[in-house]
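Tokens for chain A. Residues wanted.
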């Protein structure tokens, strides 16, 4: 992973913007949408800057002051890059290529724009408002995560791809269904290249609570699992897997 994706809260914060023309105008609109206070290079309080013309001299002056800089079309001078964005406020989906190809990021954004329903942000807000009720429904943290996963699963009562998912949150919370039962799933790899993962394997890795695997399974595969999933090196699948979803990943 060449960069750590982060979301910066810029509301009311000073951000330097230099350069002129269409590129500067586009960056200005983006910063204004984020609520940033746009300032010039001489503002000594700002710690973030966008050099819209990619000027190396300006970039070097700002970096010498400890300012984090995005130099447009000059990735070698960038401390951070600006992704293409799918905005379903409060849901933000960012697509970055580390400066390799803005065109590719744009093409992916356009595909995702068509995929995600307009009501996705409303679902996020509804789930935020329902936090207390969710904790009451599932007091145990593990059961709560599994209950949410089951609700949001493809075809689930609050599947994010449903246009009416937000309106269905109260019915989901009041329903009698429980979280998915604990189970063990087996994934047989085609190779240690994550590009060879089937859709099912990629989905299970993203959902699993723990991943059992021989030492021969590559790190690139294990990186596709949830960050908080437990990785357990084993010679055989577990006889009595723990609660939730366990995977046995084998070459």
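Reply:
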């Amino acid at each position: 992973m060449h960069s750590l994706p982060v979301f910066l809260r810029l509301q009311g914060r000073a951000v330097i913007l230099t350069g002129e023309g269409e590129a500067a105008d586009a960056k200005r609109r983006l910063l204004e949408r984020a609520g940033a206070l746009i300032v010039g290079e001489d503002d000594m309080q700002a710690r973030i800057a966008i050099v819209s013309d990619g000027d190396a001299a300006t970039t070097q002056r700002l970096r010498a002051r400890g300012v984090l800089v995005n130099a447009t079309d000059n990735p070698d001078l960038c401390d951070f890059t600006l992704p293409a964005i799918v905005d379903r406020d409060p849901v933000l989906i960012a697509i970055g290529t580390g400066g390799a190809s803005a065109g590719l990021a744009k093409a992916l954004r356009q595909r995702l724009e068509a995929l995600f329903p307009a009501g996705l942000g409303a679902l996020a807000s509804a789930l935020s408002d329902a936090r207390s009720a969710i904790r009451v429904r599932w007091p145990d943290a593990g059961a709560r995560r599994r209950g949410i996963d089951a609700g949001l699963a493809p075809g689930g009562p609050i599947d994010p791809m449903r246009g009416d998912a937000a309106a269905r949150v109260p019915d989901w919370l009041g329903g009698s269904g429980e979280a998915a039962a604990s189970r063990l799933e087996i994934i047989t790899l085609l190779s240690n290249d994550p590009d060879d993962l089937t859709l099912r394997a990629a989905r299970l890795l993203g959902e699993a609570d723990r991943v059992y695997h021989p030492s021969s399974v590559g790190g690139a595969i294990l990186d596709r699992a949830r960050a908080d999933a437990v990785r357990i090196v084993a010679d055989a699948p577990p006889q009595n897997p723990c609660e939730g979803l366990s995977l046995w990943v084998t070459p």
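Residues 183-250 form a domain with the Cobalt-precorrin-4 Transmethylase; domain 1 fold (CATH 3.40.1010.10). The first helix runs from residue 22 to 33.
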